[in-house]
């Protein structure tokens, strides 16, 4: 399934967020904390505190969409060394993240098997 036709910008919010937040709460983080426009078509990636879940927020032609991904046996390798609240990902890094790979080191997350 093709989730996005075109990815203008992909932003990873480094700090964990409360996963009770949905579209409105995440859009507020984008606009107030990151000072970015939530409706420009960019993709915003958020992680929970235990790093086993992702929420991906983006604006489509007709409104917001929110994707949710949960790892069953592993944790996402999340960048913690940067001082920036947000880091920009390439499309390839975004696909690596969704496939269970470390975005920074390009290593497969332990505990996952691919057929």
TrEMBL record:
<dbReference type="Pfam" id="PF05717">
    <property type="entry name" value="TnpB_IS66"/>
</dbReference>
<protein>
    <submittedName>
        <fullName>Putative transposase</fullName>
    </submittedName>
</protein>
<dbReference type="InterPro" id="IPR008878">
    <property type="entry name" value="Transposase_IS66_Orf2"/>
</dbReference>
């Amino acid at each position: 399934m093709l989730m996005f036709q075109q990815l203008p910008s992909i932003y990873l919010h480094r700090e964990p967020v409360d996963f009770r937040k949905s579209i409105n709460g995440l859009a507020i983080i984008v606009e107030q904390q990151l000072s970015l426009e939530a409706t420009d078509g960019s993709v915003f990636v958020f992680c929970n505190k235990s790093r086993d879940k992702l929420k991906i927020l983006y604006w489509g032609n007709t409104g917001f969409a929110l994707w949710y991904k949960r790892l069953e046996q592993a944790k996402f390798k999340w960048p913690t060394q940067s001082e920036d609240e947000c880091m920009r990902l390439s499309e390839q890094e975004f696909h690596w993240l969704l496939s269970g790979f470390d975005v920074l080191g390009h290593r497969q997350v332990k505990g996952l098997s691919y057929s």
